[in-house]
Amino acid sequence: MYDSSRSPRQTRLFFFASASAIPPAVPGGERRIAYAPNGYFPAESPPVLPSRESLRADLRVLREAGFTGIVTYGAEIPAIPEIAHDLGFHAAYSGRCGPVIPLDVGH
Questions:
Q1: Which ranges of 18-103 would DSSP assign to H, the alpha helix?
Q2: Which domain holds residue 94?
Q3: What is the per-residue pLDDT for 83?
């Protein structure tokens, strides 16, 4: 149930924090999740991009939940693969038929 006293970020974090099971891994052991950043409004003119701090907070929650790969809906935010790498994700995939961006993290 939606709790209107929570900010959108708190609601999203609550959802991930209360998940009871991590999805099964794809072949190779990677656990992927689709990712759309908080604070990203591409339809605005000019588009509103999330801060690096916001991206890092989002991705930290996903990594701590056990995910090792992210799938984005586009490649308009170049900081995502860099921050994902820093947090230990194995790969970032662009959702626009783009290339797989392997993240050399030694895993």
A1: 52-64, 79-86
A2: 28-102
A3: 95
